[in-house]
Amino acid sequence: MPADCIFCGIVAGRELASFVHRDSELVAFMSNAPVNPGHLLVIPHEHAPSLADLAPDLAAALFRAAQRFARALRSSTLRCEGLNLFLADGVVASQLVPHVHLHVIPRFAGDSFKLNSSGGVTTFESMPPREELERVAAAIRAALAVSARGAAERPIR
User: Fold this and answer.
1) 35: CATH
2) Catalytic residue annotation
């Protein structure tokens, strides 16, 4: 893990984050500069600058986790009428941190997130206080717990 990678620092516990999920491969935490409340970043523990640097199973795990978080966001108390998954791969693609990360962004009519015509995104300028990020993370964790209980009760088809 590179010492100067902020996401490696989050995985290692050297940097603060409002976690929604942690397992042996991935962590998900609140974006410090969210587009909308509930904006998550999903990252692998393993440092990988680009998607091509990830093992295929780990890349698949990243998207499986995003699917769970999307379900949780839609069923949470947060405003979520739709979702965007966004993965910037490389500086020219607007990747700001050179560690693979998948944005899971809750969307609603009239929000401010837009892709511009040159393929970039609007800048993330808001930086909510840690207490707000923790409150939103708790709402998503609660929805994940309800979703997990429901999945355990449903028969496998």
Assistant:
1) 3.30.428.10
2) 101
